[in-house]
Amino acid sequence: MEDSCTGQEARKTHISLVVIGHVDSGKSTTTGRLLCECGIVDERTLEMYTQESAQAGKASFKYAWIVDNLKSERERGITIDITLSNFTSPRYQFTIIDAPGHRDFVKNMITGTSQA
Fold it and tell me: Are 115 and 97 in contact (CB under 8 A)?
């Protein structure tokens, strides 16, 4: 939206969302699904993750693989590092952070939360 007085784009309200919780509670799956529902992930990319996760014997992880990009995360089935996603809607600018829940990676979760 452009401001008629200054000709500059009006600032959008920024919303930060950090997804935290216990290990294996579906944080990455929920975050990946949210990104799909918001149109951030195209059908072609989702199909690629669907095929890759099925070939690895982890078909139910297709949405989690949208945000869990590290090879070790996909092999172990847990989030190790944060994933930061930014997108805008007509009214808002969003930052969504998927944080690890495993106790070995709490430091990464705290670091990620501070970036929100």
Answer: yes
Global pTM reads 0.80
**DSSP H or E stretch at residue 83:** strand 83-88
- pLDDT bucket at 78, cuts 50 / 70 / 90: confident
Coil, strand, or helix at residue 81?
coil
> CA-based angle 82:87:90, to the nearest 5?
155
CA distances for 105 relative to 16, 39, 71, angstroms: 21, 30, 16
Distance CA 93, CA 112 (A): 18
Which tokens is 115 given? Answer: 């970036």
